Amino acid sequence: MANSPAYQAVQEQIRALAQFYRTYSAESARQERERRSGLGWLGEFFSSDRRFSNDEMHTRFYEEVRARIQVLAEAIGALPETEARQAAMQAVDILFDPVKPDERDTAGWMRFAAEPLCEPLLRYLDRPTLETLYRRYNEVYPKQLQFPAQVKLRREMERLLRQA
Could you report the per-residue pLDDT of 128-138, keeping only the tens digit for each? Predict the structure, then answer.
């Protein structure tokens, strides 16, 4: 069954998501290096047009991840349970790749912000995988330090674990 056209299409979407993350991270790192250079830093000091809140690349990244996950979640839903579980975990592994807080550049912060977008994929995970993800998530992001989107994601994991 793993060679079905639907499964192959999902695998291609997952590969494209991983490539999208790599490309975004590399481009953001390049921009960070330029920004930290002498003239880049001086220009940022006097102008707000390059500050994080105005950076279209990072906003586009987040919106593109959201769109890709919506399409991917629908495609995964059409797969048999075993394939859906495997594909969902592959996609979650791409999204949930914690960056240490002291190592977060702008791209790291945006990847951090995009992690909760994996929520629609969680329903395809089996209980042991979801339990492992839940424990790991709470180790990386202690409950008392979670932002609202993280709390929502954690609560969805808890709800799914209660149902399983």
Answer: 999 999 999 99
Say if residue 141's pLDDT is above 70: yes
Rounded Cα distance between 150 and 142, Å, is 10
| DSSP string for 90-130 | HHHHHH-----GGG--HHHHHHHHHGGGGGGGGGGS-HHHH
Nearest to 89 by CA among 78, 107, 76, 70: 76
pLDDT tens-digit map of 77-100: 999 999 999 999 999 999 998 877
The secondary structure of 19-83 as a DSSP string is HHHHHHHHHHHHHHHHHHSHHHHHHHHH-STTSGGG-HHHHHHHHHHHHHHHHHHHHHHTS-HHH
CA distances from residue 39 to 28, 32, 58 in whole angstroms, order as listed: 18, 13, 22
